[in-house]
Amino acid sequence: MLDDSRTKEKSIIVEMIHDEVLIERAKQGDPEAFGELVSRHRAKAYGWARKMTQDTYMAEDIVQEALLQAFLKISTLIDAEKFMAWFHRIVQNQGHMKLRRGGPYAKEQLFSAFIPSNQEIDWSNIDHVLFKLNSSIEYRPTNNPVEQLIRKETLQGVAILLRCLTERERKIFECFFIEQLTSKEIAELFEMKVSNIYNVISRSRNKLQRERIKVELGDYVKDRKRKGLPSKRILDRSKLIKGVSL
Amino acid sequence: MTEKSQVLQCENFQGSWTSAGNAIFNTVKFNKDDLNMVRVMGYTGHAFRININAADVDVAGPTAYDWEDIFAKGLENLGFKSETIRTLDFVAPTPDELKRAISMIQKSIDQGVPAISWDLFVPEFGNIFGYDDEKKTLWAIDPQGDQELPYEKLGRGQVNELFVAIITEEIEVDRETMFKTALDMAINHAYHREHKDDVPPYENGLKGYDAWIEAFEKGEVSEFGNAYNIHVVHDARNFAAQFFRELKDEWQNYEKISTLCDEAVARYQEVTDHLRAITNLYPFPQGGEPNKPENAQFTIEQLKLAKQSEVEAVKVLERIREQI
C-alpha cells in the first residue's frame, strides 16, 4: 500500500514537472528526463510518422530514429516551446529520408507490411523472424509469383547480410529494429550509455549498408554486362587540370 | 606543388582555387575548344562569388551554396543542359542513389565527357573520367590528385555526401545572352542573400565583406578557414579582372561596352590588389595568425578597401547590363 501511494505520488510529481525542466535536465545528459519527454510526446510523434508512412513498423522505426536524434541533439535546443515543432520536424525528416527512396512500397519496405499481423513471432530473435517471414511467403496464396520471389530473395538477403555483424552489434540491432524498445531500455539491457548505443546501431547499420551496397553493385555490373553495355572506358587524363593541391 | 607555384598557375589563368571552376572546365573542354578557364569562371559566376561565415570565416563558405542550381545555370550559360544528383548534407547515398550516380557517370564517359563530382579524395569538386566494371573502379581527379576510386566509395569520402553532375545535351547560346546571364548572376550574388536559413550566418556578395570584417573584429577567425577563403576570393577576383580584359577585346566594336569593360577591369584589379596585400599574411593551409590584433587591424582595413572597390565594380556591371 505504502509503496503504491509512493509510486502514485512520484508520478504526480513527475507530471507536474514542465517540459522546460525536463529539457533542461535532458540537456545535461539525464536519460530519465529524456525518457519522460519521450513518453509524453511519443504518441503524437507516432501519429505523424504513421500518417506519413501508412506502415506501423516503419512508423515505429522512424519515431525511434527521431528520438535518438532528439536525444543527441537536445543540447542544441533553445527553449521548450520549440520542442514540439522541432521534434515534429525530426520525425518528418526521418520519414522523408525513408520515403524518398521510393515510398513505403519500394524494395526497402520493412517486413511488417507483408505479413499478417496476428501471427505469433518471437520478435526478439531475428532468425526466428526471418524464418517465419520466409515460411509465410512460401505458404501464402498469391497470384504474383514474381513479387513472391522478390520478397523471398529480399529476406534471404537480409539474413546473409546480418551475418557480417558481431554478436553484440547484432543483438543491439535486433533490439532496435525488432523489439522497438526505447533507446533507454536498450541501454539498460546492455548497461551502456545511450550515446554508445547510438554508435553501435549506426555502426551496425553502416556495416549492413556497405555489405548491401557490395551485393547491389555486383548485380548492377552483371546487369550491364547482360545488356551488352561497355565494361570499361578511360578518357584522356592529360586534358584534365587538378587545380590547387590542398 | 609549392604555394608559390600554385599562385603562378593561377596567375597564368590555367587553374583556379575555385575547384568548381576547374571541374566545370574539365568537363566542357571535351565538347568546346573555344572555352578557357577565364571564360568558365566568368560565365558560370564563379569569378564573382564570395560567401563568408560571420561567426568564424569557416572553410566551408566557398562551397556552401545550392550546387544543383548554380552548376545547372553555369553550364547552361556555357551551352549545356545538365543532370545532377545530390544527397542531403552529410548523408551518404542509398544503394539506389549510388547506382543511379554510377550510371550517370558511365553515360557521360561513354559519350567521351568526364563527369563532375564532389569529395572524391578531399571535400572539393573534381572529375570522374574513367570506369571499369570488372574492377568496379572509377578513375577520378581532384585537388588531391588522380587515383582510382572504388564504386562503393563514391559519396562516402571525407564528408559522406554524394554529388554528380553531367552534361546531357549541347545547346545554342549567343554571346549576348552569355554576357547578360553572367552579369545577372554576378549582380544577383552581390546584392541578394542566397541562403534560406539564418544559421550558419553565411553572407554572400557585398555583405560577405561585412561578415568577414565582423569576424575579425570579434577575434574569432578560423585560421584554416580564413586562409582558404582569402586565397579563393583573391583568385576569383583576379579571374574577374581577366574576364573583362578578354571581353573588352571581344566587344571592341561596341565602344560603350568596351569602355565599361575596361572600367570593370580596373575595379576588379583593385579588389584583387587589396586582397593580395593580405594573402601573404595567411598562407594556406597553415593559416597565420588572424586573431593577432595588428594582423586583424590591417586585414580589416584591406577588406574595407576591397569592398569599396567591389561596390564600384558591381555598379559598372549594372551599367554594362543596360547596354546589352
TrEMBL record, chain A:
GO MF term list: DNA binding; sigma factor activity
Gene3D superfamilies with a match to the protein in the record: 1.10.1740.10, Winged helix-like DNA-binding domain superfamily/Winged helix DNA-binding domain (1.10.10.10)
Tree of life domain: Bacteria
Annotated protein name in UniProt: RNA polymerase sigma factor
SUPFAM superfamilies named in the record: Sigma2 domain of RNA polymerase sigma factors, Sigma3 and sigma4 domains of RNA polymerase sigma factors
Keyword annotations: DNA-binding, Sigma factor, Transcription, Transcription regulation
Family: Belongs to the sigma-70 factor family. ECF subfamily.
Pfam families xref list: Sigma70_r2, Sigma70_r4_2
InterPro entries: RNA_pol_sigma-70-like, RNA_pol_sigma-70_dom, RNA_pol_sigma70_ECF_CS, RNA_pol_sigma70_r2, RNA_pol_sigma70_r4_t2, RNA_pol_sigma_r2, RNA_pol_sigma_r3/r4-like, WH-like_DNA-bd_sf
TrEMBL record, chain B:
Annotated protein name in UniProt: Uncharacterized protein
